[in-house]
Structure formats: C-alpha cells, structure tokens
Amino acid sequence: MTGRFVVLEGGEATGKSTQVARLAESLGALATRQPGGSPVGVRLREVLLSAADDPTPLDDRAEALLMAADRAQHVAEVVAPTLAAGRHVVCDRYTPSTIAYQGHGRGLDPDWLATLAAWAARDLQPDLIVLLDVSEDVAAARLGRATDRIEAAGATFHRRVTQSYCDQAAADPERWVTVDGSGSPDEVAALVRDVVADRLGI
After folding, report:
1. Overall pTM > 0.70
2. Which pLDDT band, with edges at 50, 70 and 90, does 146 fall under?
3. Number of domains comprising the chain
C-alpha cells in the first residue's frame, strides 16, 4: 500500500511551514518542502531564495527552470520512494506554487509551466492540496520585513499569486480544500487535521 501525498499551499506568511510540521507529526508522515527538500534542492534553494538585496539578477525563466529541477530531484529522491514504502508525505509547496509564482506572479505561461512541472514530477499528483488562506493585512503583519527575493517582489506580485491560488482551488475542488489560516497555530492545525481526515480518511 502506498502512502498518501498531502501538499500545503499558500502565499507568504500563511503558516505553511508550521502546519506542515504539525500535520506530519500527527500522521507519522515525512515533512518536506519545495524548494530544498533534497541535498541538491538545498543548494538550489540558496539561489532561488537569495537575500532580498542580492544584486545578482535571476531571470524569470531561469527561476522557473530551477524550480522544476528542484522538483524533479525531490520527487525522484525523496517523495516517490517514501510513498512507495507506504509512508505518508506532507510537503510545503508543490506544482501549484510554480503556477502561482512563476506563472501568474512572474507572467510566464501557466499552461507551459504546468506541462514542465508534470514532466519534472513524473506526473505525480498530490492526493490533497490544502490552501491556507489569510488576509493581506494578516500576512503583512506576520512577515514583517521581506528577507528573500521572492518575498520582496512587491504587493501587486503577491496579489496575483493569491488570486492564482484561489483560481486553482476553484477549478479543482475534488483535490483542493481551503482552510482559514488566520487563527492560532493550534486552531489552524485542528482545521487542517479535520479536512485531511475527512477527505483522505487518515
């Protein structure tokens, strides 16, 4: 029996990393992330999420290709073997982030990016995608000063990202569920755990 694959998505400061750890612990699952969920991915993450004041530019297409490279290595080395061994995987970001950030955020073709992402991931799809939703004001208060190049992309960029997530969730309600992420970590963890149990029975 293969494990179940759950992905948490959302914009900056929505609480994904905290909730990935909490959900994985409750399920006895592997907690991981993209980018940076493999040894190669750690090095790619350093480039992709360089400091907000890094003077070295990164072309938008290069960013998208590095994200795909990270995903390919992560799926091959970490995600697929873990699922095949029967253990659940909870991942902080996956293909929807590429569509939201590099597609609608950066203005690259979302359909082309979806094809690239599917190829990189060997067509591995999550069993469930949980979208953590918080208001722009809550996210800004949590984030404080932007520390990496994506956080520092600007309010308009991040509004496009948020809208993309909403559109993706609306287009695939069987795979996506939206959870209010504005509560305390305990409150949000309970909501996430409930929807995972309801949708996947685990």
Report:
1. yes
2. low
3. 1
